[in-house]
Amino acid sequence: MTPTLRKNHRAIWFFLMGFLPVLFTAAIVVMPEQKTMPPVEDDQPPALAGVQKSAEADPFAARLRGSGSGQRQLEIEVLRPLTSASALVYLTNDSSTKPQDGILLGSLSNRQTYRFNIGENGDPQPTIVVFDPIKNAIIQTITL
User: Fold this and answer.
1) 82 Cβ contact partners less than 8 Å away, ≥ 6 residues apart
2) Both 29 and 57 in a single domain?
3) CATH code for the domain in which residue 116 is found
4) Reading across the β-sheet that carries 60-66, which strands appear in turn?
5) Residue 95 DSSP one-character state
6) N- or C-end of the chain: fewer Cβ atoms within 10 A?
7) How far apart are the first and last CA of the chain?
8) What is the C-alpha separation between 130 and 78, in angstroms, rounded?
């Protein structure tokens, strides 16, 4: 290194020696406070009082719930993790129809209980079809 470069190098290091701690302190001072996220609310409707029918087909347990006012609710419990990446729930009249011809209720993803309101009127023995839209295959058919 030439004497001029050495002099400039030393000056730059002395400047950085004083300036970097000021920068670090300023960064800590202006750091925003950590905000806590509000808890995620469960978007599931509350369970209706009475269980009218129930059925199990691995890995699902399905229950048809009803209230005194005539409302009905389908409750599907995923008992073990699904092997499919995506699963849609359809309500059909019988197991021979295509799932897409039925009513799409929603999707299933992980082990938990899912509830779907299905209205007051309907088939007294509904068929539930769990369908994988990626593989275009029926995962399970459950008749209540």
Assistant:
1) 59, 108, 109, 110, 139
2) no
3) 2.60.40
4) 50-57, 60-66, 72-78, 113-119
5) T
6) N
7) 87
8) 11
Q: Are residues 104 and 63 in the same domain?
A: yes
- In degrees and rounded to multiples of 5, residue 119 shows phi and psi of 85, -175
| pLDDT tens digits, 82-126 | 888 889 999 887 766 777 778 888 888 888 888 888 877 666 778
Q: Which amino acid makes up residue 105?
A: L
Pair (137, 69) in one structural domain: yes
pLDDT (tens digit per residue) in 47-87 = 788 888 888 888 889 988 888 777 888 899 888 888 888 89
- Contacts (Cβ under 8 Å, ≥6 apart) of 17: none
Within 10 Å of residue 118's Cβ, how many Cβ atoms? 18
Q: In 3-state terms, what secondary structure has residue 17?
A: helix
Q: What is the pTM of this model?
A: 0.67
Same domain, 65 and 135: yes
Across the range 9-35, mean pLDDT stands at 92
**Same domain, yes or no: 5 and 70:** no
Domain of residue 93, residue span: 50-143
Instruction: Rounding to the nearest 10 degrees, give the CA dihedral for residues 68, 74, 77, 82.
Output: 180
Rounded Cα–Cα distance for residues 45 and 63 (Å)? 14
